[in-house]
Amino acid sequence: MTPLHFSFTAAFVLGLTGLAFHRTHLLSALLCLESMMLSLFMALALWTLQTESSNYATAPVILLAFSACEASTGLALIVATARTHGTDQLKNLNLLRC
């Protein structure tokens, strides 16, 4: 495994462990998701450059578009949660107790 592949894998795994273990606030969970998407984007963009294939050139742009949609949806959820519950802590987001 090259150091470049190791760094992208380590960035993805760090984002995944942050998502798994530090779920106190909705904002921290969304930031971990964004770091995972960023590492996937960088890996996919460099993979496209390394293979020198024009067939996969649009894949990083499509992934970036999905990441932007995910970020905007997450921001809207944070705003809606802060307005209804008063906080973005995940322990207060119980669907049975609205």
TrEMBL record:
Annotated membrane topology: Multi-pass membrane protein
Cell compartments where the protein resides: Mitochondrion inner membrane; Mitochondrion membrane
Keyword 4Fe-4S appears in the UniProt entry: no
GO biological process terms, semicolon-separated: ATP synthesis coupled electron transport
Record-level Gene Ontology MF annotations: NADH dehydrogenase (ubiquinone) activity; oxidoreductase activity, acting on NAD(P)H
Keyword annotations from UniProtKB, A to Z: Electron transport, Membrane, Mitochondrion, Mitochondrion inner membrane, NAD, Respiratory chain, Translocase, Transmembrane, Transmembrane helix, Transport, Ubiquinone
TM segment ranges: 6-22, 29-49, 61-82
Enzyme class, spelled out: translocase
InterPro entries: NADH_UbQ_OxRdtase_chain4L/K, NUOK/Mnh_C1-like
Primary role: Core subunit of the mitochondrial membrane respiratory chain NADH dehydrogenase (Complex I) which catalyzes electron transfer from NADH through the respiratory chain, using ubiquinone as an electron acceptor. Part of the enzyme membrane arm which is embedded in the lipid bilayer and involved in proton translocation.
Protein name (Swiss-Prot/TrEMBL): NADH-ubiquinone oxidoreductase chain 4L
Primary gene name: ND4L
